[in-house]
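Below is how a single chain appears once it has passed through the pipeline. First comes the sequence as given, then the structure the pipeline wrote out for it. We keep one example in the README because the format questions we get most often are answered faster by looking than by reading.
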Amino acid sequence: MASILFKWLLASSLLNFNTSFSFPARNGAEVKKPETYHPIFVSVTEIEHNAKDKTLEISCKIFTDDFEKALRSTYKTYVDLLQPKDKNAMNKLVADYVQKHLLIKADGKTLALQFLGYEQDEEGIESYYQVNNIASVKKLDITDNILFEYKKEQISIIHTTVNGNKKSTKLVNPEDKYSFEF
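Resulting structure:
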């Protein structure tokens, strides 16, 4: 469901894109990356309880250009998630940022998200996390303010699945908390 929604949002944003180009100068000047404009600022977080493995599996999808700009602003460093000079450094930035902006409590217990990695998925970066030793879930308390400091128009969409029961919500900046009961 989240991938369908993200693709729909992506398709609508691509209809209104604005790209700027720079051509390489003969003196070897650096070529500017194309900048894409999209009229909506959204992240999609999916949380699924895997009862068999007793894990909570989490993924966060964020538009690449917005995410890179927010990381640059937050950490005051060079950021290129698509062609990183140092993949380990980018992994640390992605993990640190998301773990500070996505807080999850299961049945009142604050969870530590274990970062598994990230990859490019169309126009977004999808990062993956896992929490072990979660036998059951009755309530999830979520704080999700991913990119809220970057864009006041930012929206967070959260999808959860526990015991086959799917629930979703939308958080509009500055609203950043929601509880799911199963």
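The first strand starts at residue 42 and ends at 50.

See the next section for the split statistics.
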